[in-house]
Amino acid sequence: CFIYILSLLYSGYTDLRLENGSDSCSGRVELQFLNEWGTVCDACWDMRAASILCKQLNCGIAVSVVGSDWFGEGSGEIWADVFDCDGNETKLSECSISSWSRAECSHSRDVGVVCSNSSLARHDGLVRLSGERQCEGEVEVFIYQVWRRVLLDSWSLTESSVVCRQLGCGSVLNFYGSSSSSPEHSHECVTGFQCSGSEAHLGNCSSPQTLNCSSTQQLSITCRGSIRLMGSGGGCAGRLEVFHSGSWGTVCDDSWDIKDAHVVCRQLQCGVALSNQQVPAWFGPGSGPIWLDEVECEGNETSLWSCSSPGWGKHDCQHKEDVGVMCSGKQQTII
């Protein structure tokens, strides 16, 4: 996350805790500043910060970072948006942070953490998507103290919808099988999740069974929430917004052209780009982070994430330069 760090070291809070969890090692993150308790915004909060917090609370290591739907919304102040930990700190106060503020946050974005010493960590259903994309990748669930990949067998759109909802990534765009292996993961995978579709978490679905990972293809999911078009009243035209590090942000129109727009329309299953429109007045300026700038696509990519750019948050733009895209079709879900 590219946010100017106003303070290289801040140790002004007086206490920390995890609230509304199953025990003291899981729950909504809350920090006390002077005599006032407040929650922490999920923007730029990651597993490194969570691991430092768990270590400080003598709760082992971080198992998962979750949203407010797990432990509820807090009240009062919303503290520092950004904790920039390198993973070697012994206390959260040793991490660099941004200024303490409520900018771009609400209690619907209160971050929660599950540590390995929590009883909740032994429950099935904590989920993440591998790779750098928060809303697409191979599905992994934490079961029996180990992250395990999920097999494509018996998986459906219903279970995919639960995963995307649990991750705060909107609805399902696609799910598919792939052959992949990594020495850092367990040799056992899981299969057999059965969901009704209304569950808030995969852990509320029927329990799976473990199998050898080589037995079939492993599951990958792309959630529609990782990219969207806003401001037009329809899903296939609008201001381009992308989801990264827990928050929605915009894309600057520098170097944007019709090839980039075609990739966006293809990723959203919205046909082809109708216009190389760069006039933000059509869809209005956005708010929050400007996540991408100087995007360069060849035009044949299946995802905007395959295109080159200087990196997340690296830009010299204002929201009046937020790019808009107009596509030919209507969104469809591919399975």
Annotation keywords:
six-stranded mixed β-sheet; Mac-2 Binding Protein; mainly beta; disordered N terminus; 335 residues; 21 strands; 3 domains; single chain; 4 helices
Task: Describe the overall structure.
The chain has 335 residues and is mainly beta. The chain folds into three domains: 13-115, Mac-2 Binding Protein; 123-224, SRCR-like domain (Mac-2 Binding Protein, Roll), CATH 3.10.250; 227-326, SRCR-like domain (Mac-2 Binding Protein), CATH 3.10.250. 10% of the residues lie in helices and 30% in strands. The protein contains four helices and 21 strands. The chain has helices spanning 47-56, 68-71, 157-166, 258-267; strands at 13-20, 26-33, 36-40, 62-66, 77-79, 83-84, 96-97, 112-115, 126-129, 136-143, 146-149, 172-178, 188-191, 209-212, 218-223, 227-230, 237-244, 247-251, 273-275, 290-292, 324-327. β16 (227-230) and β17 (237-244) form a beta hairpin. The longest helix has 10 residues, at 47-56. 44% of the residues are buried. Mean pLDDT is 77; it is low at 1-11.
Topology readout:
Blueprint: E1 13-20, E2 26-33, E3 36-40, H1 47-56, E4 62-66, H2 68-71, E5 77-79, E6 83-84, E7 96-97, E8 112-115, E9 126-129, E10 136-143, E11 146-149, H3 157-166, E12 172-178, E13 188-191, E14 209-212, E15 218-223, E16 227-230, E17 237-244, E18 247-251, H4 258-267, E19 273-275, E20 290-292, E21 324-327
Parallel strand pairs: 3-5, 18-20
Antiparallel strand pairs: 1-2, 2-3, 2-8, 4-8, 6-7, 9-10, 10-11, 10-15, 12-15, 13-14, 16-17, 17-18, 17-21, 19-21
